[in-house]
C-alpha cells in the first residue's frame, strides 16, 4: 500500500463524551469542524450522556443532563449533511464503571472491587448489555457499524464463577474472553444482521491465530488495533495485524490518537507527539499485505482514561493537533504542524477553511488561548517554587508556623508576593470560566478549575492564611509594618 493509503479510507474522529460533554451549540460547531478538517466519520462514545430509559435510566449522568433523544437525532442529521458517518461506541465487557458503579448492578461485577469488568457468566449481564445496545442503536438507524469496546477487561478470571469455569480442561483466560465476546456478537448479529461490529484488539494480542480461529468469532467482528505511541513498533504492528488475518479476521481498523493519551492529567496537547504517532501508522499501512482489508482509522480523542479518572485536555486545546493529524493522513506528511497557536500556516488554514471571514478563529479558539495563558502562569517557576523562595524558607518555615513566630517585615514581603500571584491567577481564571461556560456545563468548569488551578493556589492561600494567623497571635497586623 502507498503511504497515502489511509487518505482514501474511513477517517473517524473519536468523540469521547464521558467527560466535558460539549453544550449542543458547541457540539454542532465541532461536527462541522471535523468535516472541514477532512474527517468522514465520528466514533461517538456517549457513556452516561445517552438518554437511557426504563431500568437503564439510572445510567444517566447526575452531574449534568444527558443529551435528549431529539439532540442525538440532531447530531446525526448534522453529521450526515456533512458526509460524516456516525458509529456509536458502547462498552460491553470492560470499562463499564458508569454501569457497575450503581448498586442496582453491582452484583454483575466480575469482582466486587473492580467497577469496570462485567461477570461474563450471568445471563442478566448479557441481557443488560444487549438492552444498552438496543437503546443506542434504536436512535442510530442509519449507522452501518457499532463499536463494542471490549478493551482492558481487568481482573477477568478472578471472580468465583470464572475460577470454577477455568478449572475445566481446555479453559483459560483467552477462551473465557472469546466465549463471552462470541456469545455477545452472535446475539448482535441475530438482532442486527447487517451491522458491522468493531472491537478493540488488546485482549486478543496475547492469543495465537489458531486460538482465535477455533472460535466462531471469525466473520462476527472487525478488530481495531490501537497504539498511541509516537514511537510505536511498526514491524510488530504489521505482524500483529497479519496474525489476525491468519485467524480469519481480514477486515481490520487501526486507531491513533490526537489527544487524551499522553498522561491521564495532560492539559495542553502536544501536536508533535500525535503527528509522530500518525506518521508511524502510515508506515504500518504501507507495509500491510494485500490480504488485510484495512477499513480505516479512528483518531481517538480521550476525555478521560476511564469513567472515574480526571479530565484530559479539552477539545479546543486539541484542534491544532487534530488538524495536523488529519493532514498527515491525507498528504503522508504534516503540512500544518506548529508548537501551538503561534503558527501562521495553521492559523491561515483554519481561517480559510473554517471562519469564512476576515477573523482568524475556530470554535473554541478563545478558550484555548486563555487556557494556554493560564497554564503558563500556573507552571511558571516563580509561582511553582514560591514556597522554596528565600523569604519563605528562611523566615516562615514549618518551624516558624508551628511556633507562630515571624519577622513582621519579612511577613509583609511574603504576603505581598503571594497576593500578587493569587490575584493574577484569579483574574485569568475568571477569563477561562467565562469562555468555558459558553462551551461546557458548569460542572465541567468546576471540575477543570479544581483539577488544574486549586492544587497550585492552595499552598499560596495557606501561606497567606498562616501569615495572617501568626501576625494576629503576635498582636500585630501586616499593615502595621
Question: What does this protein look like?
Answer:
With 481 residues, the protein is of the alpha/beta class. The protein is built from 18 helices and eight strands. The protein has an eight-stranded parallel beta sheet. Strand 1, helix 1 (24-36) and strand 2 form a beta-alpha-beta unit. The model is unreliable at 337-351 and 353-360 (pLDDT under 50).
Keywords:
481 residues; 8 strands; 18 helices; eight-stranded parallel beta sheet; alpha/beta; 47% helix; single chain
Briefly summarize what is shown.
The chain is α/β, with parallel strands linked by helices and 481 residues long. 47% of the residues lie in helices and 10% in strands. Strands 3-2-1-8-7-6-5-4 form an eight-stranded parallel β-sheet.
Assembly category: single chain
Average pLDDT level: 91
Structural class: alpha/beta
Got a strand count?
A: 8
Q: What strand line-up does the widest sheet have?
A: 3-2-1-8-7-6-5-4
- Ends apart, CA distance between termini: 76 Å
- Number of discrete helical segments: 18
Q: Give the % helix.
A: 40-55%
State Rg: 26 Å
Question: What overall form do the CA principal axes indicate?
Answer: globular
Order of helices and strands: EHEHEHHEHHEHEHEHEHHHHHHHHH
Question: What ranges have pLDDT less than 50 throughout 5 or more consecutive residues?
Answer: 337-351, 353-360
Portion in strands: 5-15%
Largest sheet: 8 strands, parallel
Amino acid at each position: 500500500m502507498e503511504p497515502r493509503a489511509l487518505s482514501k479510507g474511513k477517517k473517524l474522529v473519536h468523540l469521547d463524551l464521558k467527560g466535558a460533554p460539549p453544550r449542543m451549540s458547541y457540539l454542532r460547531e465541532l461536527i462541522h469542524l471535523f468535516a472541514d478538517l477532512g474527517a468522514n466519520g465520528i466514533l461517538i462514545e456517549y457513556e452516561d450522556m445517552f438518554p437511557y430509559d426504563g431500568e437503564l435510566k439510572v445510567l444517566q449522568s447526575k452531574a449534568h443532563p444527558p443529551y435528549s433523544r431529539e439532540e442525538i437525532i440532531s447530531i446525526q442529521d448534522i453529521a450526515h449533511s456533512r458526509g460524516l458517518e456516525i458509529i456509536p461506541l458502547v462498552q460491553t465487557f470492560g470499562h463499564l464503571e458508569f454501569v457497575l458503579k450503581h448498586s442496582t448492578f453491582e452484583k454483575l461485577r466480575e469482582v466486587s472491587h473492580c467497577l469496570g469488568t462485567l461477570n461474563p457468566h450471568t445471563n442478566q449481564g448479557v441481557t443488560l448489555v444487549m438492552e444498552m445496545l438496543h437503546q443506542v442503536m434504536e436512535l442510530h438507524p442509519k449507522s452501518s457499524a457499532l463499536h463494542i469496546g471490549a478493551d482492558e477487561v481487568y481482573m477477568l478470571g478472578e471472580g468465583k464463577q470464572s475460577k470454577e469455569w477455568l478449572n475445566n480442561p481446555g479453559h483459560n483466560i483467552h477462551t473465557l474472553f472469546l466465549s463471552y465476546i462470541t456469545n455477545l456478537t452472535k446475539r448482535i448479529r441475530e438482532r442486527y444482521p447487517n451491522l458491522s461490529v468493531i472491537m478493540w484488539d488488546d485482549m486478543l494480542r496475547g492469543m495465537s491465530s489458531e486460538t482465535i480461529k477455533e472460535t466462531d468469532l471469525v466473520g462476527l467482528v472487525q478488530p481495531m488495533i490501537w497504539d498511541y505511541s509516537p514511537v510505536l513498533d511498526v514491524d510488530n504492528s504489521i505482524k500483529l495485524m497479519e496474525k489476525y488475518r491468519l485467524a480469519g479476521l481480514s477486515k481490520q481498523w487501526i486507531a491513533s490518537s490526537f489527544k487524551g493519551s499522553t498522561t491521564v492529567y495532560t492539559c495542553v496537547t502536544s501536536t508533535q507527539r500525535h503527528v509522530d504517532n500518525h506518521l508511524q501508522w502510515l508506515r504500518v499501512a504501507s507495509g500491510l499485505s494485500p490480504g488485510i482489508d484495512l477499513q480505516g482509522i479512528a483518531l481517538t480523542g480521550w476525555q478521560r482514561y476511564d469513567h472515574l479518572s480526571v479530565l484530559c485536555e479539552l477539545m479546543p486545546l486539541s484542534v491544532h493537533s487534530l488538524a495536523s493529524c488529519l493532514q498527515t493522513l491525507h498528504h503522508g506528511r504534516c503540512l500544518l504542524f506548529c508548537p501551538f497557536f503561534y503558527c501562521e500556516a495553521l492559523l491561515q488554514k483554519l481561517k480559510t477553511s473554517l471562519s469564512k471571514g476576515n477573523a482568524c478563529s475556530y470554535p473554541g479558539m478563545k478558550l484555548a488561548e486563555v487556557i494556554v495563558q493560564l497554564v503558563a502562569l500556573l507552571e511558571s517557576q516563580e509561582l511553582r517554587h514560591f514556597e522554596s523562595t528565600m523569604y519563605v524558607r528562611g523566615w516562615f518555615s514549618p518551624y516558624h508556623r508551628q511556633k507562630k513566630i515571624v519577622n513582621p517585615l519579612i511577613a509583609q514581603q511574603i504576603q505581598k508576593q503571594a497576593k500578587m500571584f493569587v490575584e493574577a491567577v484569579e483574574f485569568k481564571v475568571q477569563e477561562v470560566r467565562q469562555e468555558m461556560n459558553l462551551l461546557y456545563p458548569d460542572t465541567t468548569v468546576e471540575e477543570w478549575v479544581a483539577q488544574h488551578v486549586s492544587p497550585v493556589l492552595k499552598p499560596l492561600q495557606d501561606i497567606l492564611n498562616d501569615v495572617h494567623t501568626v501576625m494576629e497571635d503576635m498582636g500585630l497586623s501586616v499593615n502595621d509594618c
